Structure formats: structure tokens, C-alpha cells
Amino acid sequence: MLSRLQFVVEGFFQSSSKLFHRVGFSPNSLTLMGFLLALAAGALYWGGLSSWEWIGAVLVLLIASFFDAVDGAMARKYGKISKFGGVLDSVLDRIGEIALYSGLLAGSLVQPWIGMWALSAALMVSYVRARVSVEGVTLKGVGIAERPERLLILIVATLFWPLSHNLLAGGVLLIAILSSITVASRVYRASIALSR
Q1: pTM of the model
Q2: CA distance 155 to 68
């Protein structure tokens, strides 16, 4: 859903990428930095979110999300889009999400069934898009819980965690539900496109 608004913020992220480009970073290096930050957030969740871990998790997730957007913007701005870069970004994004939800589960911050549902549904959102693209159908922007939306929900839920520990579990449950709806809508859209 947020990917449909990409043109609105693309200029901001491309401008932000100038600094990283001047320093010598490549889109792939930004992808790697975002991935390492996702691993760090997973580790903070694993720790159970003490006061400093809670603040750290929110900040790390925000910065990781920023890098997640800037790497693609830099690649488009400086003509450094590559097939390997796309593969690396996709693979590390998936591993990063596995780390986040595994951390939530290991830290006992969500019930196991909620965490496993959210993780499975999140991975399936990306899998359906990748599988259908092999058949020549593009599903970017289809659904209401692509990766940016999932990260945004997780950040907000983590931010308000001190107010009520149930808010974090509720946010993860919302991710699970919206991701499942996204999977269903993508399969439906694919069935229409591929039956013509």
C-alpha cells in the first residue's frame, strides 16, 4: 500500500542517498547495514525489552527502515540497479524479518501462535509476489501489508510497548492478519491475470 506513495517520498530518500554516495557507500552496503540493524533489533527483542532495550529497538528499527528505503533510492538515482542487488536486498529482507519475529518469540514478547502466524504470513507475502513474477505478473503495491507497512506497525507497537505489553502482541497480531489478507488478495489478483 505504501509503495503506491513511493513517488511522494522518493525525492527525500534520493537526496538522503547523496551523502552516503559521497562517503563511498553503495546500495548493497546500505542493504547490508539495514540487515545488520534488523539482526540487532531481533537481539534486543530477544533480551525481553528492558528500558534501554526498548529504546534501542525503536531507534534501530527506525534506522533500519531508513536504510531499507535509501538503498533502492540510491540505486535508482545513480544508475546502480543490478540483478544481484535486487536478489541480495530480497534475501536479506527475509532473513531480517525472520530475526525480528524470532526475537519476539525468544523474548516471550508475543504468544508463539501469534509470532509464527505473523512470520509465516509475512514470508508468504513476498513469496507469492516472487512466484507470480516468474509468470510475468507484477504484484508490487497489491495488498495492505507489504514490508514497509509491516515495519511501520512493528515500530509503532514497540514504541507504545511500555504503556501496555499487550500493544506489542496486538501489533504483531495485526501484522499477521493484514499479511494474510495481502497473500489472499495477491493470489486472487494472480488468478485473474493468469486465467486470461
Answers
A1: 0.88
A2: 14
Measured between alpha carbons, how far is residue 149 from residues 52, 177, 179 in Å? 25, 12, 10
For 47, phi then psi, to 5°, come to -70, -10
Beta-carbon contacts of residue 65 (< 8 Å; ≥ 6 apart): 34, 148, 151, 152, 155
120 and 179 Cβ atoms separated by less than 8 Å: no
- If you average pLDDT over residues 35-57, what whole number do you get? 91
Which CATH number covers residue 79? 1.20.120.1760
Residue 71 CA to residue 147 CA, distance in Å, equals 15
Instruction: Supply the range of the domain harboring residue 63.
Output: 2-194
Catalogue the active-site residues.
93
3-state secondary structure of 108: coil
Whether the pLDDT of residue 131 is over 80: the answer is: yes
User: CA-based diameter of the chain, in Å?
Assistant: 55
Cα–Cα distance for residue pair 13/100, rounded to 1 Å: 24
Residue 173 dihedral angles phi and psi, to the nearest 5°? -65, -40
Judge whether 70 and 13 are in contact, CB under 8 Å: yes
What domain count does the chain have? 1
pLDDT 10s digits, 61-80: 999 998 888 887 787 777 67
Residue 79: φ, ψ to 5° = 65, 35
